[in-house]
Amino acid sequence: MNFTVIGAGAWGTAFAIHLARSGAHSVSLVPRRAEHAAALVAARENEDYLPGIALPKTLGVTVELVSALAQAEVLLLACPSQALRETCGRVRAALPENSTAPLVLSLSKGLELHSHKRPSEVIAECLPECAVGALTGPTNAAEVARGQPAAMLLASTLGEEPLRSVQAALSSVALRVYTSGDLVGAELGACLKNSYAIAAGCCDGLRLGDNARAALLTRALAEMIRVGVALGARPETFYGLSGFGDLVATCHGAWSRNRQFGEQVGAGARATELLAGRRSVVEGYKTTQSFAELCAEQGIEAPILREVHAILFRDKPPAEALASLMTRELKEEYR
Length: 335
Prior knowledge:
Strands 5-2-1-6-7-8-9-10 form an eight-stranded mixed beta sheet, with helices on both faces. Strands 3-4 form a two-stranded antiparallel ribbon. The chain is built from 15 helices and ten strands. It has helices at 10-21, 34-43, 65-69, 84-94, 119-126, 141-145, 160-170, 183-205, 210-230, 241-252, 257-266, 271-275, 283-298, 303-313, 318-326; strands at residues 2-6, 26-30, 45-46, 50-54, 59-61, 74-77, 103-106, 132-136, 150-156, 175-180. The chain has two domains: 2-181, Rossmann fold (3-Layer(aba) Sandwich), CATH 3.40.50; 191-326, N-(1-d-carboxylethyl)-l-norvaline Dehydrogenase, domain 2. 49% of the residues are buried. By secondary structure, the chain is of the alpha/beta class. The active site is at 193 (proton acceptor).
């Protein structure tokens, strides 16, 4: 199968390495900048985002989007969620006329600011002729690039039979891919967990201990399901890879940018100062703003999201946010 991966950050590079490793596929990695592409070709390594891991000889690197899309059957977009619309515009301009439209899969994990649209909604709006989907789950880029075992969820509105062929092409001995028809739930879980990872980081920054972290993750899952179902998702999706699985990995992983960011905020740093001049994206920051607005508009009860938003955008001290959560009206667990 012919794959094109647009975006050569850590995750885009890692997934391109995974696809190229088998030698069974044609894989092109498309960085945004020509100088980055030149550096990847020269070093055969992504020294900026994934140092120490060699690019397979079979992995092509180019900034020529037209040629990279010419034979692409599956296009994976590995850009930050806030850059997705612009990236789709570049793809639309480069797609060959009268060619078969590729399946476009999002690797992004965030809602678009202000519109509150999920990645697949943005893609479908910009590329209406393409089938869309999302590939998500608990995956650390470096581990995937090194070939360590992992599992992911492929969610799409594509028909069952074509989806199976893509599932088989994406899977390997090191990466097991499951499928789902709940695209809404798969994407919402992937987006929400970043906000909760910031909250988990705040717990660590405040040195609250294991009990507090366990309580937070349990209530975060309950809130994730409540928000997701209100927005049209299936509840069972959040017990799977894109919900519970991604939540656990991102809230516990030392590599998690969102958790690290939350830890620094919990220890007293200001969010805006931490973000200034930062190269890597903290998806949970703007996604928290988007979900807070969306929940307020639709009357969805989401106290953890509300308090994370207050910490990040209203400079509420994390200790005060914790007190607000702990002193809410008492209730039964499953109500």
